[in-house]
Amino acid sequence: MSHATHFSHRFSDSSAASTGVAVIALSLLPMAVVAQLTIAVGGDKVAHALAYAALSFLALLGRRHFSTGFLTAAAICYLAGVIELFQSDFVRTTDVLDFVASCCGVALGCAGVAMVRLAFWSVGHRNERPASKLASTRRSARYSTSRLL
Description:
This protein is an all-alpha fold. The protein has one domain (3-148). 83% of the residues lie in helices and 0% in strands. The chain is built from 6 helices and no strands. The termini are far apart. The model has no long low-confidence stretch (mean pLDDT 79).
């Protein structure tokens, strides 16, 4: 792994960890404190979706393989469920629709990572030719130079 790649993975992991701490802290604060933030972003369900989309985007950006990305997304959904269950102990209410909104946010984060990876992959492979066309080009070039000699 190159130094730049290692730095980007480390940055993604540390950003995801700090975002996760912020999501947990906001999830366990009393609703009176968080009410102004949820109104500003469009409601409680939208706030759940945006928070978990940001968390999953940052957490999945550093994953190289599908299996580790899938396990990370499942762990984030599990975290959302656990937080939702514990909210009743912290002057909040437990709502199944909040969990659904959080899981939708995880799916949005996954889609965002897929789009970023597809964009970078397509930029990196824009000028490449398929191997079959490259081989036929070499054969035709060989035959055309042999005729000249």
